[in-house]
Amino acid sequence: MNAEFRAQDDGFDLVAGALTLLRHRGASPAITAAVGDPDVVMIRGNFRMEDRRRDLAPLPIMDVMPDRVEMRSHPGAPSALTLSLVPLDGGFALNVESHIGDCNRLAVELVAQPHEHVWGGGEQMSYLRLNGRRFPIWTSEPGVGRDKDRELTQIMDREGMAGGDYWTTNYPQPTFLSSHHYACHLTSTAYAVLDFSDPAANRIAWWEGCGRIEFTFADDLPTLVEALSSRFGRQPKLPDWAIGGAIVGLKQGMASFDRLHKIREAGAVVSGLWCEDWVGIRETSFGRRLFWDWRWSAARYPDLPGHIARLRADGIRFLGYVNPYLAIDGGMFTEARELGFLALRLDSDEPYIVDFGEFDCGIVDFTNPAAAAWFADRVIGREMLDIGIAGWMADFGEYLPTDLRLHDGSDPMLAHNRWPVLWAEVNARAIAAKGMTGDALFFMRAGHSGVQAHCPLLWAGDQCVDFSRHDGIGTVITAALSAGLVGNAYSHSDVGGYTSLHGLVRTADLLKRWAELGAFSPVMRTHEGNRPDDNLQIDSTPDILHHFAAMTRVHAALAPYLRSLCDDAAERGLPLQRPLFLHYPTEACYACEDQYLLGGDLLVAPIIHEGSLDREVLIPADDEWVHVWTGNMMAAGRCRVSAPFGAPPVFYRADSAFAPLFRALSMHRGELVG
Q1: Is 37 an annotated catalytic residue?
Q2: Gyration radius of the chain over CA positions
Q3: pLDDT per residue over 389-403, tens digit each?
C-alpha cells in the first residue's frame, strides 16, 4: 500500500491509496503533544488513572515531504515533532517522535471513513463494535458488575474501586480493525486510549513521547485478520485431549476424584480434571482461594502424582493453577527473595509487597532473565510438569504496580501492559523446555500486544454468576470475538461463571445455558466459583448433571470439526469463534454481537437472557442453513427460534463437509433435557 504525506493549505494529509487517513490543519490539528504527570492508584488490581496535563504550544510551521513531516514552532526553529513513514509488508508504519524534552503525551486523530465500523481493542467484554465510545488500554481487573447503574457495581466500587466499567478488561490491546479493510496498531505498551466517541474521528492517545502506529491493509476482513495473526504470532494447535471432552473443575481435595467418578457415571465425557486447589486452600472473606506457594499440597492431595498417573491411564489429564506471585508465608517467597528474583521497593532493597486481599505477596521480576528462567524451571517445570500436570490456569499478570523498581531499570508505567506478555512467555518456555508444546496447555486471562505468540488459550476471566449485560454470560461471546480479531485463535470461559458476592448465586437456568455455550466453544471447562458451597454445581442435582453430561457428549462429538478448525488456525490464523461479519459483511452482521460462527460451518446463537426458551436469530444470506436439532431449513433474515434446555439455537451450513457429523449431534445429546 503506497502512502504519502501531501501538503495542503495550512497543513497536510496522510493518504494511503484511495483513503485519506489523517488531515492536519493549524486550526484543527490531528497531531498533538503534551506534558503529563500521572496519578495512579491501585487496589488489588483495580486502577484509578488520573493525569495532570499541560498541552504544548501549537506547531504551525510544517515542512511536508512525501515520507516525512517536520513541525516547528516558528521559522528557523529546530524540529519539535517529526512524522515519518516506513513501508511494511501489506502496509506502512507512521512514526511519531517528539524533540521537546519534557513531552510525554502524544495523540493522533485519524479520519473516520464514511459508514465505517470499527472493532478490536483486545479482549473487550461489553461491546464488540467500538463506534461511539472510548476504550482506555490498561490491563487490570475488569471489575464486578461493570455497570455504574448496577447496585452490585456501586457496592464493589465502595469496597475498593472494584466495580469496573464497560471498558475495563484483563486484556486490552491498542489495535482496531475497520470495515474499510485496514487495521491500525499502536506498538507502545504505555497507557493509551482508543477513542471513537467522535463519529468523524478515530483517535489514538498514549502516555509516551514517541510512538509507532502500524497500518495493515487487505482485500477483505478474513485476510486482514490473517495478517494480524501473522503480525502478533500464532498459537500451537490445541491438543486432542483439550477438545475431546469437558475439563471438569473441582476443588474439594481428594473428594474431587470421587465426584469425578460419579460425573462420568452419569454419562459425561471428561477429558480433564482441573483441581486448582492442588496447592492447598486459603479461606478469605471473598471466598475459597488458594495457597500461593506453587507446590503440591500433600495434606490436601496425598499421593497426587500417583492419582495423576492413574487418571492419565484412563484417558484423563490433570490440570492445576499457578500465578506469578508468591505468598510471603510460603517457602518459595523466601527462596526467590534470597536469590534476588523479586521486584523491589523504590525506597529500599526490600521486596515490593502486594495486598491480594487478606494475604500479601511478592512479585517475581520477569525483567530479570534469571528470575524468569527460575520460575519456568523451578516452579512450572519441576513442581508441575514433572509430577504429570498437563495443563493449568496461568492466572493474573495484570497487577504490576507502577511504584516499584525492576531489574532491567524499565519504567513500570511502560512495563505494566507488557507484564502479561512476559508471564505468558515464562509459561510457554517451561513447556517448550520439556518438549511438550502442543501437548501441555495453559490458559490466561491477562494480555496485551504480543501475548498471542506465547499463550495457547485465552479464558474470559471472572464473570458474575448471572445473565447481567456487562458482567454475565453474554460477555464471554464478546470477549472471544474481539480477541479473535487481533490474533487469538482460541478462547473459552468458566462454565457457570465465577464471581458470587453479596447474595448473587447461580441458578440452574444459568448453569445449563452456560454448559450449552461451552459445548459449542473450542474448550469446555467448568469452574466451581469463588464460593462453591453457596452455589449450584454441575453435580448438585440429577437434572443439572443429566443436562451437563448431554452437553459434554455434544462437545466431544464436535472434536473432528474442531480439529479441522485448529488446523485452519495454524495455517491461516483465523479464530475458531468468529463474528458473523467476518464471512458475511453486511450492515446487519456488522451490528450482531450475541451470535457467532464456530468456524465457517456452524452458526451459534446462545441463550444469554434469564428464563428465555426462545430467541431471535439472524440467519445470514448467501448460504443455506439447517437447524441442528430439527433438520429444518432456515430462511435468511431474522427469525424466532425455540430453545428448550439442551437445544440451543445452532445451525449448520447445508453444504458443509461435516454435515453428517452435525446431523448426528441430536443422537449424541440423547433425550431433550429440561
Answers
A1: no
A2: 25
A3: 999 999 999 999 999
